[in-house]
Amino acid sequence: MSELPSQERFRGALNQPFQVGPFTAPDGTPLPFQVQLEEVRQQVPGGPESFALRFRGPASPLLEQGTYPFTHPQLGTLALFVVPVARDAAGVDYEAIFNRG
């Protein structure tokens, strides 16, 4: 797994897909699962290392709160702890929050 990129590096990946998983069906068939990075938000004014990421994924399946490998072509594979924060008929929003330094 890669080291966690900075807030600015994540900003460079806005509106781009991330592969989550790998997940497999009971018969061992790979199940693709992608989310899109839709927002990079600073959490604390003046604190560049306190930020949140919001991803948008499909309506089904729902990822439970937990840590998953997220892979992006430029950022590599990252272990991110995400929480589902909103759901509608079109999809699910997931959030990851970081507080460093």
Overview of the molecule:
- 5% of the residues lie in helices and 58% in strands.
- The chain has one helix and eight strands, in the order αββββββββ.
- The relative contact order is 0.26.
- The model has no long low-confidence stretch (mean pLDDT 89).
- A hairpin with a 2-residue loop joins strand 4 and strand 5.
- The chain has one helix at residues 7-11; strands at residues 17-20, 23-24, 30-31, 34-44, 47-57, 66-72, 76-88, 91-99.
- The chain is mainly beta and 101 residues long.
- The two termini are 20 Å apart.
- It has a six-stranded antiparallel barrel with strand order 1-4-5-8-7-6. Strands 2-3 form a two-stranded antiparallel sheet.
* Low-pLDDT runs: none
> Which structural class do you get from the secondary structure elements?
mainly beta
Q: First CA to last CA: what distance?
A: 20 Å
Largest sheet: 6 strands, antiparallel, barrel
Taking all Cα atoms into account, the compactness measure Rg is 14 Å
Helical residue percent? under 10%
Form type: globular
Arrangement of strands in the largest sheet: 1-4-5-8-7-6
Helix count from the secondary structure assignment: 1
Q: Would you count the extended β strands for me?
A: 8
Average pLDDT reading? 89
Give helix and strand order, one letter per element, not per position.
Answer: HEEEEEEEE
Q: In percent, how much strand structure appears in the residues?
A: over 45%
Blueprint of the fold:
Elements: H1 7-11, E1 17-20, E2 23-24, E3 30-31, E4 34-44, E5 47-57, E6 66-72, E7 76-88, E8 91-99
Antiparallel strand pairs: 1-4, 1-6, 2-3, 4-5, 5-8, 6-7, 7-8
